[in-house]
Design goal:
The protein is α/β, with parallel strands linked by helices and 199 residues long. It has 9 helices and 8 strands.
Length: 199
């Protein structure tokens, strides 16, 4: 259409289409290069993929599928603090570090450890340890990375790939220098969401 508008001659459409098609084939097949439009998009960090999976993941935020059953805690706890944390019946414990959350572990692992310590103490007739180091007890710990509350599931997947984290904690800026954690997202959450939507 641009050729016709520039020349005002409809006879140029067919030769123009042949030239553009030939040029595109030579560029992609002979030189292995993409079109200028796709190259510019990629250099700007914009995605040009429109698969149904990507479209579905772009429509949903991490806030819709995150697990809110978490309890933020310090690395070292007394036995009383550990039991108090378990009374809230969280599914996950988010271990705080100096620069923010550093690890995620199931609350069941802490409960199992406390029970084992009590049994061992009764059998050996001694007192159980007074403190619990959440990064030293046997548990299925996961490395964590942050993701913003407004992020889409596609952005969360990209965050998993770039950080190599096993879980993402969902946070939002509520005030300058203050971040609030709302929940956690696992890769399995995203995969199960997509499979549920597909079926």
């Amino acid at each position: 259409m641009a050729l016709m508008e520039l020349t005002r001659n409809p006879n140029i459409i067919l030769p123009g289409m042949l030239i553009i098609t030939t040029a595109s084939l030579v560029t992609s097949e002979a030189f292995g290069k993409r079109s200028l439009f796709l190259t510019i998009l990629k250099s700007q960090g914009l995605s040009y993929q429109n698969s149904p999976v990507i479209q579905a993941l772009r429509r949903v935020s991490v806030g819709a599928i995150m697990d809110r059953s978490i309890f933020r805690t310090e690395r070292e706890l007394t036995n009383e603090e550990a039991r108090k944390a378990l009374k809230a019946e969280p599914k996950w414990l988010l271990v705080e570090g100096k620069q923010g959350p550093t690890a995620l572990l199931p609350a069941v692992d802490l409960a199992r450890y406390l029970e084992d310590c009590e049994k061992e103490a009764e059998e050996e007739d001694r007192e159980p340890p007074k403190t619990v180091d959440l990064l030293a007890i046997p548990a299925n710990r996961r490395d964590v990375a942050p993701v913003q509350y407004q992020a889409t599931l596609e952005q969360a997947l990209q965050e998993f790939d770039t950080t190599q984290a096993e879980a993402l904690y969902v946070q939002r800026h509520v005030a300058p220098m203050i971040q609030r954690v709302y929940g956690i997202v696992l890769k399995s959450h995203i995969e199960s969401y997509y499979q549920y939507r597909r079926s």
